[in-house]
TrEMBL record:
InterPro entries: BP-dep_ABC_trans_perm (IPR050901), MetI-like (IPR000515), MetI-like_sf (IPR035906). SUPFAM superfamilies: MetI-like. It comes from the Bacteria. It is a multi-pass membrane protein. It is found in: Cell membrane. Keywords: Cell membrane, Membrane, Transmembrane, Transmembrane helix, Transport. It comes from Sellimonas caecigallum. Belongs to the binding-protein-dependent transport system permease family. The chain crosses the membrane at residues 14-35, 76-100, 112-133, 153-171, 209-231, 251-275. Residues 77-275 form the ABC transmembrane type-1 domain. This is Carbohydrate ABC transporter permease.
Length: 290
């Protein structure tokens, strides 16, 4: 029977490998082209005989200098890093204990809380961003000065709050797969509930934590609608990129525009490369199980 199945298995593997290669090429080629184009001068994009696939005649790093200085991409980058880090810290500090308690302990109201968090998965924050803006604006009016709007910490708090249901759902699913023997052994050794969570359970859940960190990082880093609505002077990188692309496209400065795209993409690629192995473990071991 194995001999009869072998040709079919080979064909299916070949089809899968071809599909994966095509997918990899479709992702790698545009990214590589943007990196290459970010070092080109404007004359290499416009005019007869220009080849968009050709390597830069000279690596024109001034595109990045203009993007950082004139377009203030450095300030937007700092704001985005600060907001993203604050949001990730807030979401872990809140979601880890909540997910652990909801998944490992039975108490009155446990099911209701789980239902509430599950319902939160179906709320799209983009639909309620205007009410959030009006609420924060009213609070600023009551204070007599601007505090809640254009505040990086408030933006990070809103990001974390909006993604708590998703994070708690993933972490709870992973905590449920861990054997209870580790907790029982810790209790016998005299560990408290809090110490058991911090010293035993959270380290074991590291693959799932990396998974939610990556998903939330990508969401916070690329978010535009909430930041555009609530922020002004302390705008994020998505807002800066939007302004840069609008200005440079009008002025036909394509090299500077692509340099801005690289500034946005590079931290994401670096972070993904650093956590790729842990991300695969988290998805394999149950981080995405229902």
């Amino acid at each position: 029977m194995n001999k009869h199945k072998k040709p079919g298995n080979i064909v299916s593997k070949v089809v899968i490998y071809i599909a994966l290669i095509v997918l990899a090429i479709s992702i790698i080629v545009p990214v590589a082209w943007v990196f290459m184009a970010s070092f080109k001068q404007n004359s290499e994009f416009i005019g007869k005989g220009t080849n968009p696939w050709a390597l830069p005649k000279k690596w024109f790093v001034q595109n990045y200098q203009v993007a950082f200085q004139d377009a203030q991409m450095g300030e937007f980058l700092f704001n985005t890093i600060l907001v993203t880090v604050l949001a990730l810290v807030l979401i872990l500090v809140i979601a880890l204990p909540a997910a652990y308690v909801l998944s490992r302990f039975k108490f009155r109201g446990n099911k209701i809380l789980n239902i509430i968090f599950m319902a939160g998965l179906f709320i799209n924050v983009n639909y309620i961003v205007v009410p959030i803006f009006l609420m924060l604006s009213d609070w600023d009016t009551a204070l007599g000065f601007q505090f809640f709007l254009d505040n990086r910490f408030i933006l990070a708090l809103i990001y974390a709050s909006c993604h708590l249901p998703f994070t708690i759902y993933l972490l709870s699913s992973y905590f449920k797969t861990l054997p209870r023997g580790f907790e029982e052994a810790a209790y016998i050794d005299g560990c408290s509930y809090f110490k058991t969570m911090v010293k035993i359970m959270i380290p074991m859940a590291k693959p799932s934590i990396i998974t939610v960190l990556l998903f939330n990082f990508l969401t916070f880093w690329n978010e535009y609608i909430i930041a555009y609505t609530l922020m002004d002077e302390h705008g994020t990188l998505a807002m800066g990129l939007k302004n840069l692309m609008a200005v440079e496209r009008t002025a036909t400065n394509y090299g500077i525009m692509y340099a801005g795209l690289v500034i946005v993409m590079l931290p994401v690629l670096i972070f993904y490369i650093c956590v790729q192995k842990r991300l695969t473990e988290g998805m394999t071991l149950g981080g995405l199980k229902g």
